[in-house]
Amino acid sequence: MSKRFEAYELPDIIRKPLITEKATIALENNQYTFEVAPKATKPQIRSAIEELFEVKVIGISTQNPPRKKRRVGQFIGHRATYKRAVVTLAEGDTITLFPDV
């Protein structure tokens, strides 16, 4: 099974949920998309999601999108790298992305 991680490490693994048109459509299949730390592994992501949101994860897909160039004046650089994780939850589990205020 997956190794458990210390509670103080978990918030650093999951950065933020990604809200795009494709990610919103995937919510119907109980799949949630998150931006995670680039060096995070699938077991780390699973542990972080299960501990932070108190849900059961049944599948994870990760992607490392290519870096995009960014130009500021005459200087050319790259945007910061990130990793995208699509997490499939067990039947009946949900994550509230938009809490009622």
How would you explain this protein's 3D organization?
- The relative contact order is 0.24.
- A hairpin with a 2-residue loop joins strand 4 and strand 5.
- The chain has three helices and six strands; from the N terminus they run αβαβαββββ.
- With 101 residues, the protein is an alpha+beta fold.
- The strands form two sheets. It has a four-stranded antiparallel sheet. Strands 4-5 form a two-stranded antiparallel ribbon.
- The protein has a single domain, classed as 2-Layer Sandwich (Alpha-Beta Plaits), CATH 3.30.70.
Give a brief description.
The protein is built from three helices and six strands. With 101 residues, the protein is α+β, with helices and mostly antiparallel strands.
Could you give me the name of the CATH homologous superfamily?
Answer: RRM (RNA recognition motif) domain
Number of domains: 1
| Rg over CA atoms | 15 Å
Question: How does CATH name the architecture?
Answer: 2-Layer Sandwich
> Percent of residues in helical segments?
10-25%
Q: How many distinct beta strands?
A: 6
* Overall geometry: globular
In percent, how much strand structure appears in the residues? 25-35%
- The spatial strand order of the largest sheet comes to 1-2-6-3
Can you tell me the CATH class? Alpha Beta
- Would you list the SSEs in sequence order as H and E? HEHEHEEEE
Question: Any idea of the CATH topology?
Answer: Alpha-Beta Plaits
Mean pLDDT: 90
Low-pLDDT segments, ≥5 res: none
Largest sheet: 4 strands, antiparallel
Number of separate helices: 3
